[in-house]
């Protein structure tokens, strides 16, 4: 299991790298955003740990560049920017987790293991395909169609839709979606799910197409044709 750490603070980078190596991970290190992006796109990693404030290229730009090239390697943002708004921005930008500084190494290792194992599970189910009404989702190709129309989804939008399609016509709670897609403890003040669901609806429902994702007030969301 290979992890890339992109962190400009030498003390933090060496602390995290040493802790991960002690738990059996192979670790590469980058000290700025440009170097980190080059390494992330030239080698296969099971997880990228990414600082937000980096020289050369900041963390969110690194993340955006990765996702723009369909690189879906799990990313954990590591940052001293700890407000709810900062976490929402990090998560809605395509990261899989957001851990604020200062942090406990044991928690970082636990989260890293969760992200790596979840990614391995998805990879093990690459032949899976879901369909409902005129909607089709293929995990192997990471593509979604509505009828003959191919829909371009970000990774989190794809995982949210997959979770809903796994429970067609059943209400899925916000907490369940948050934990399954982000592997992150639920924060009732965070609107990250609502933002992603709104974007997902816009992409799935062009003019004249019936709505498929519905909000059940106080309960969650459901995929069904009404």
TrEMBL record:
Domain spans labelled OmpR/PhoB-type: 127-225
Top-level taxon: Bacteria
DNA-binding region: 127-225
Sequence ranges assigned to domain Response regulatory in this UniProt record: 2-116
Keywords from the named record: DNA-binding, Phosphoprotein
Pfam families according to UniProt: Response_reg, Trans_reg_C
4-aspartylphosphate: residues bearing it: 51
Keyword Nucleotide-binding recorded: no
Protein name: Response regulator transcription factor
The organism of origin for this protein: Photobacterium piscicola
Lineage, broadest ranks: Bacteria, Pseudomonadati, Pseudomonadota, Gammaproteobacteria, Vibrionales
